[in-house]
Amino acid sequence: MMPNHLHLLVYVQKDCKGLNSVLGEGKRFMAYEIISRLIDKNEKSILAQLAKGVQVNERSKGKKHQVFRLSFDAKAVVGDESINKVLDYMHHNLVSGKWDLVEDYTKYAYSSAGFYKREEEGIVKVEDFRAMISESSTSDSEG
Question: In degrees to the nearest 10, what's the CA dihedral of 85, 87, 108, 67?
Fold first, then answer.
């Protein structure tokens, strides 16, 4: 999780509705939670800014806040080597360029780096991709 964007490594099962649907539902539930917390904390200026971002056609349907941009950048990642390369990029993004968020990238509370590099659970719940790949290949061979 970055100050102005989010990196996700998403596993999509063969029988799912598709990446757009999975991410759309995820963004919708996260947006509800974000708005709920902002309301609880009486963050009127942030709520007003998010309200300004709603497109006219969406406003007429009752949408009150635009929490996420309407698009996302997705890339297919297949195999352990590619997944590890993406995770390495995501984890080091915290401490590269303009993002100097922490001294030790494995200790950033909103990253999976601590899970993969130090085997420590953090604030963010991580589903280990290695277990998912193992389960997927087992079910593929059984089917």
Answer: 130
Show pLDDT as tens, one digit a residue, over the chain (143 residues). 777 778 888 877 777 777 888 888 888 999 999 999 999 999 999 999 999 999 999 999 999 999 988 777 888 888 888 888 999 988 888 888 788 888 888 988 888 888 888 888 878 788 887 777 666 655 554 44
Judge whether 5 and 67 are in contact, CB under 8 Å: no
Q: Do 66 and 79 share a domain, yes or no? A: no
For residues 54 and 30, state if they share a domain.
yes
Instruction: Give the list of residues 6+ apart from residue 102 with CB closer than 8 angstroms, or none.
Output: 94, 95, 108
Residues with Cβ within 8 Å of 92's Cβ and at least 6 positions away in sequence, in order, are 105
How far apart are alpha carbons 17 and 14 in whole angstroms? 9
Query: Do 84 and 64 share a structural domain?
Result: no
Angstrom distance (rounded) from CA 139 to CA 15: 13
Distance CA 122, CA 115 (A): 7
